[in-house]
Design goal:
The complex is a heterodimer of chains A (about 400) and B (about 450). By secondary structure, chain A is α+β, with helices and mostly antiparallel strands. In chain A, about 55% of the residues lie in helices and about 15% in strands. Chain A starts with a helix and ends in an 11-residue tail after the last helix. The longest helix of chain B has about 40 residues. In chain B, helix 1 packs across helix 12. Classes of the chains: A alpha+beta (about 400), B alpha+beta (about 450). The interface between A and B is large, with 60 and 49 residues.
Chain lengths: ~400, ~450
């Protein structure tokens, strides 16, 4: 190929070359960073909770009747609610649980290893009945579930507890051992917790505290319930559940929502951020493409006589087409190389703003391929026009 | 001279309408993207209560676990304990002060056919109302005597006033909350601050339905409905009140009015002395770290403007720059086509500077036309954004252009015109006059 003329032409038209280089570089920097932000937000939106989110229903019973001041009345009411919830057609499992997924927070506490070093571990901490894991759709991967005696014991004051913890917490506290059977205690050593089981994945965002994957469950009754519906039936169950609970006991209100709804509320903020980024990115690619079309057209128009002369001297149409495409590719590539540096520089600034938006090679590669394609497609039109310049033009006097 | 240049510019703009339209569109798109993005930052960064944010101070003390630092933002607890609040409230240094937290209580409507409703309640001291400039439609807050006793009085918001009493002046009427009757002493005017700025633990909330004297916390055993952080368990089987006075759980927000640096310093010293005293009893085992932060500093510290908005704004401004760079080629083509005319003007004595100025003014004129169009686009984009974000902000018109933002759009379009125009204007003015005369 004719590197000489291409290179000389690029040098001769410094300003025009520089313009495309800068444009391509800035575009790559922006596109790559948009992509990395979008990927980061998508990550938050689609983070797996480890639960059967789509089929869960979230229920809060809010008692106001004075009768609820009696412990025995509370216990009877909760047991009755769980029984009624489980009996609703379309319900696979129901549980009384202090843990509600996608609440944005919850309760937490600290434990240490009995007889171990004085290191404390903070974890999310919830009381629930033995149906909770079935309801969430979480597997017990080691050890066993709570049994009926352990659940009944929660009505009394205890200092000994059986607990089930998440795998992430087990790996944190006992990195090289089986955690089942190990004993933990509270930092003031008033209570002892024996690990009887380990559950698989657990993820629940906890308002800025770094304990999203750590969970500790013990047996307890709560006025909050979860129901796992048969696939596709969750939304339809909401009014049924509300009616059932109010019919069972009118001395309280019931708030019922699907977990899917809560999750989409949580994801909505990120969704809202992704939209303008996508929009700006598309607009940017269009503007850059138009810029390249404009500049290349201008340079073709300016060089009609030279093109005609080359054609007259025997250059084929393909050679002319190749010349312009290659010239454009060369300039775009220089821009891309510069853009890689700019993208990383811009990203350093952005990462201080948005944690986890660090740029990675696949994203840069995607940006490079995109700009190469856009550059070539944009140059194609003007280059084809250049190839159509008749050789006779060289003989004409202006 | 300027009017002459503007006339020349306008003439040139009209002569080549297609090209001009293309350039105007480019600038309009750039300004129409960058202005709304900057508006979000501008709106979110606005001080919710500028007249008081230098005087209002938020109090934090590191009463956390000696073994590990507080895991949340700031590294010290966001709130304080009940026992510490009781002690530091004895200080006479602050001009006004309040501790407060959010609770949730049942309200029983007079009409027995309606169900009781669970309402949010802000437990606070009487100073709360003047400290946060709470807008009251009827009546007022309560007085110090009502704080101390406490008296069975409440302030309710406009919405609850409508639901309970159908609106109007309800001062003096009775509302049943939990197991007690309260007399309404004040009704709020509609109050929809952008954030619940008096409660740093609450993101995205709205002011409570009911405001109640803080000291009802003990007789009614009122619990926090907001964030509570603990690290120490209590032995035995304490009653609720015993637990309040003995617990290390933090759940209270503490605000003080400190109008001048002398008082601020004195108050900080008072807190330090209090903590040193407590250390003797084995509490506050972490290094001494009390913070008395003005609301304005607190807003900066906790990033009132979300980083996502800043990231999007950065990218949008870069987009404006790229869009302007694209126009360099167009202006260049347009100007160079006019080289013969410029050659004649130069030969007749026009200086390079005046040619440069003439062309730059043309660019800026086009820039401003684009900017005006961009402002229209911004209005559209912002109304889309308001529609989209209503679900999160609970307000239909949060993001709006104001004078500052119109001025910003004006400056952005001038900048865009300059980016696109300086090089072409410089090129055209440096053409040697003779070259283009020869061919005529």
């Amino acid at each position: 190929m004719e590197f000489g003329p291409i290179f000389r032409a690029a040098i001769r038209h410094r300003a025009r070359t520089l313009l495309i280089v800068v444009q391509v570089a800035l575009s790559l920097a922006i596109v790559a960073n948009c992509l990395s932000l979008i990927r980061n937000f998508k990550g938050y939106m689609t983070h797996e909770s480890g639960f059967d989110d789509d089929n869960l229903v979230w229920i809060v019973s809010e008692p106001f009747s004075p009768a609820f001041k009696e412990d025995a009345y509370q216990i009877a009411s909760i047991d009755d609610d769980v029984r009624r919830l489980s009996a609703i057609p379309g319900v696979r499992a129901a549980t009384t649980t202090g843990f509600l997924p996608w609440a944005g927070g919850g309760s937490s506490g600290e434990v240490r290893v009995v007889g171990g070093p004085a290191i404390k571990f903070r974890t999310q901490w919830y009381g629930a009945d033995p149906h909770v894991f079935d309801t969430l759709g979480v597997r017990i991967i080691r050890g066993r579930n709570f049994n009926a005696q352990e659940y009944e014991a929660s009505a009394e004051r205890r200092t000994q507890f059986s607990i089930i913890i998440s795998k992430a917490l087990a790996d944190l506290i006992f990195p090289h051992e089986d955690a089942v059977g190990k004993r933990l205690e509270d930092p003031d050593r008033l209570e002892v917790y024996t690990i009887v089981g380990i559950i698989d994945k657990f993820y629940s965002p906890y308002g800025g505290w770094p304990i999203d994957e750590y969970a500790l469950f013990m047996t307890d009754r709560n006025f909050t319930y979860l129901v796992r519906a048969e696939p596709g039936k969750a939304a339809g169950l909401v009014p049924v559940i509300e009616r059932t609970l109010l019919r069972a006991n009118d001395g309280r209100n019931a708030r019922v929502k699907t977990v899917h709804e809560l999750r989409s509320d949580y994801a909505y903020g990120y969704q809202l951020a992704v939209m303008p980024l996508n929009f700006v990115m598309i607009l940017l690619v269009v503007v850059t493409a138009l810029g390249i079309v404009g500049t290349t057209s201008f340079s073709v128009a300016e060089r009609r006589r030279q093109i005609g002369t080359r054609r007259a001297l025997g250059a084929t149409r393909q050679a002319i087409l190749r010349h312009f495409l290659f010239e454009n590719w060369l300039v775009t590539t220089v821009g891309i190389l510069l853009g890689l540096g700019l993208a990383v520089a811009l990203n350093i600034g952005l990462v201080t703003l948005v944690e986890g938006a660090k740029i990675e090679w696949p994203i840069l590669a995607a940006g490079v391929v995109l700009l190469w394609t856009v550059g070539l497609l944009a140059a194609l039109g003007p280059a084809l026009r250049a190839a159509q310049v008749p050789p006779a033009i060289a003989t004409r006097n202006v | 001279m300027l009017t002459y240049n503007l006339r020349l510019a306008w003439h040139s703009v009209k002569r080549n309408p297609m090209l001009t339209a293309l350039i105007v569109t480019g600038i309009a798109l750039g300004v129409g993207v960058a202005t709304p993005a900057l508006t979000t930052i501008h709106v979110l960064g606005q001080d919710p209560i500028p007249q008081r944010s230098g005087v209002l101070h938020y109090v934090r003390m590191d009463s956390w676990d000696p073994a590990v630092p507080y895991p949340g933002r700031g590294g010290i607890p966001t709130q304080i304990t009940y026992r510490d609040m009781r002690e530091i409230m004895k200080s006479r240094i602050p001009v006004r002060q309040t501790a407060d937290f959010q609770a949730a209580l049942y309200v029983y409507p007079g009409d027995r056919r309606q169900r009781p409703s669970r309402e949010t309640v802000r437990m606070a001291f009487s100073d709360f109302f003047p400290m946060f400039d709470v807008p009251l439609r009827y009546g007022s807050g309560w007085d110090k005597a009502a704080d101390a006793k406490p008296e069975a009085v409440v302030v309710i918001n406009d919405d609850l006033n409508i639901r309970l009493f159908g609106g109007g002046n309800s001062v003096g009427r009775i509302v049943r909350i939990a197991d007690r009757d309260f007399r309404v002493v004040g009704v709020l005017a509609p109050w929809r601050p952008r954030t619940l700025f008096y409660d740093p633990t609450n993101s995205g909330g709205q002011p409570e339905s009911i405001f109640m004297p803080f000291n009802w916390i003990e007789p009614m055993e009122i619990r926090s409905n907001g964030q509570r952080d603990g690290w120490k368990s209590m032995e035995g089987n304490p009653t609720y009140v015993e637990r309040l006075h003995g617990s290390e759980t933090v759940f209270l927000q503490m605000w003080v009015d400190l109008p001048d640096p002398t008082r601020a310093r004195a108050y900080h010293e008072f807190l330090d002395a209090y903590v040193r005293e407590q250390k003797k009893f084995g509490r506050f085992q972490r290094p001494l770290d009390n913070r008395v932060t003005s609301l304005s500093s607190l807003l900066a510290e906790w990033q009132a403007v979300g980083p996502i908005f800043k990231a999007i704004a950065t990218i949008s401004v870069l987009f404006l720059i790229v869009a302007s760079l694209n126009l360099i080629g167009l202006f260049l083509g347009k100007f160079l086509a006019r080289a013969p005319v410029v050659g004649i003007r130069r030969a007749l004595g026009a200086s390079r500077a005046s040619i440069f100025l003439q062309h730059l003014i043309e660019c800026e004129l086009v820039g401003l036309i684009g900017g005006a169009l961009g402002l229209l686009i911004s209005v559209g984009v912002l109304s889309l954004l308001n529609k989209g974000s209503e679900r999160l902000t609970h307000r239909p018109d949060l993001f709006q252009l104001d004078v500052t933002m119109v001025l910003a759009a004006f400056l952005l379009s001038l900048a865009a015109g300059a980016i696109a125009g300086i090089y072409p204007a410089w090129r055209i003015c440096s053409i040697p006059p003779a070259q283009h005369l020869k061919n005529q």
